[in-house]
Amino acid sequence: MKRWGSILLLLIGAVGLVWYWIARYEDRFDPQIRVAAQRYRLPPSLVKAVVWKESRFDPSVRGRAGEIGLMQVTAVAAQEWADALKLTRYHHEQILDPSTNLQAGSFYLAKVLQRYAATDNPMAYALADYNAGRRNVLRWMASTNAPQARTNSAQFLAVMTFPGTRQYVEQILERRRRYEPQFASGR
Asked: How many domains does the chain have?
């Protein structure tokens, strides 16, 4: 009987350790997320939600179209960031560094958010742009007979022809809400 108690305690301890590791895994880039978000005036919960969706917090992940790192930054977006900062010795592989990736990705996300400032929810439009590109967002905005879809995010999401992009936007916005309390508390 004593043996079973020891085994049970070991199992409980192992489960607790795994749970703790998973919780810490998502938080390990929070200091860099805060810095990048502050620099580009973004909610840190939004940046973290994009990281969650794009890479699941794996800084070495690479996409099929050449996207790299935590925020899956493309070479074009990263070069825009490097040019804006006047970085003369920049090369795309530097985006594998988590801090650099978060800076470049946040720069680009802030840029696309500005494009849709006149809408009811710029984040929905910006996230669609981040995922599917500006050309698709403009097409979706223009594809409805209801002019309010150009500024009404619910109608905009309804006319989207890429279900994966709609899901992308919805999942990030939901995840952002989950992350807001941890950034509001200053943790």
From this structure: 1
Long-range CB pairs of 156-162, under 8 A, 24+ apart, other chains included: 156/119, 156/124, 156/125, 156/128, 157/124, 160/128, 161/136, 162/132, 162/136
Give the Cα separation of 16 and 27 in Å (integer).
17
pLDDT band at 133 (very low <50, low <70, confident <90, very high): very high
What's the CA gap between 35 and 99, in Å, rounded? 9
**Residue 90: CATH number of its domain:** 1.10.530.10
Segments forming the whole domain that contains residue 88: 2-184
The model's pLDDT over 17-64, given as tens digits with 9 standing for 90+, comes to: 666 656 678 999 999 999 999 999 999 999 999 999 999 999 999 999
What residues does 73 pair with on adjacent strands? Answer: 68
180 is catalytic: no
- Please tell me the pTM assigned to this model: 0.85
DSSP class of residue 97 equals S
Q: pLDDT exceeding 90 applies to what percent of the chain? A: 68
Type of residue at 79:
Q
Residue among 54, 67, 170, 174 flagged as catalytic: 54
